[in-house]
Amino acid sequence: MGRSPSCPKEGLNKGAWTALEDKLLASYIKAHGEGKWSDLSRRAGLKRCGKSCRLRWLNYLRPDIKRGNISRDEEELIIRLHNLLGNRLLISLSPSFLQWESKLRGTEFLTAHCVRLCRWSLIAGRLPGRTDNEIKNYWNTVLRKRAKAQASIGTPPSKSTHKMLSTESGVCEPLRSPQATKAKIKVILTKATRSSSKVRIPTQLPAAQHTDKLRDGQLNSTNNNQEMSGDIATVEAHNGTQVLDSLYSDGGGSDLLNEQLKERDVEFEENPMQPLAFDEAMFKNWTVNPCLNGNDAMDFDSLAFLLETDEYSFCRNINFQT
DNA sequence: AAACTACACAACCGCAATGGT
DNA sequence: TACCATTGCGGTTGTGTAGTT
């Protein structure tokens, strides 16, 4: 039995909004304010679900929305912000985990909890009057196409920005160093989540036999009840997370990035990172795959297949230096 | 003029976070 | 603490329109 849908399918209008619906919604919000959207839609006499009302208001009816084409300045800002915030891959790696990874050099597997996201709302927040939806659409239609066109004519990446390439999908790909290519690291990707979500960081390191299994790709999580139970520390994602950008950043970083990081610092202060101790004993006592637990039924073969896809191919070439 | 294609953007969907009870 | 409704977000789809053949 699943959760009841937030928007009931029956009895509600869908599709394009009519002028009358717009008028009803706008006048109701003008009189009573935003919020309580499902209630609002009923009270306003709209046969729309609350989510639809909210979206219509935020993306179209709000009085402070800026109409018209994206200006050159706005476009440049979007591109810059997207480089900073867009389609990032975050990997949660505690310091101890990085040490463990370095010990696993030579093996085929590096497991990590990865997070993919693009903060359209953050980008929109820096463009007054523009909505996240608008910017997202603009990126997906105009800018991505342009990036593709540039890539096809072999435009070299700018040295002054990042040591990475923007691919068609907007995913940032690190340049391949000889070391990185040699390392052949495989990264286990988990489901995309938001940056504030909690992730699991290993507190212990794998026993030698499991390391061997990892190397041979034999460790299957279907039996993880027996083989993969163990201590898992939960910390806030941002605290245990290293943003890949930092691995190939432009050194000092832009003002925008610094500003963004400041914001994050404020946001994250409430959840100070728990230090994760690491020592040899932990390495010996490790009995679990660090990023798997009871509900994370993962099949390494399936994941390896996933990682062979273009979308995730860049993960194989990341060179994690401790 | 009709058919087809590309484009732009509004709207939907599913998921996760959050807050109230 | 668990449950549920609400809110917010990002990815995707649908659709109207302009341009091209």
UniProtKB/TrEMBL annotation:
Assigned keywords, A-Z: DNA-binding, Nucleus, Repeat
Protein biosynthesis as UniProt keyword: no
Name of the protein this chain belongs to: Uncharacterized protein
UniProt-listed InterPro entries: Homeodomain-like_sf, Myb_dom, Myb_TF_plants, SANT/Myb
Top-rank lineage group of the source organism: Eukaryota
PROSITE patterns from the UniProt entry: HTH_MYB, MYB_LIKE
Compartments where found: Nucleus
Domain Myb-like stretches: 9-61, 62-143
One cellular component term from this protein's GO annotations in UniProt: nucleus
Boundaries of every HTH myb-type domain copy: 9-65, 119-147
GO molecular function, one term: DNA binding
CDD domains according to UniProt: SANT
Principal localisation: nucleus
Keyword Protein transport in record: no
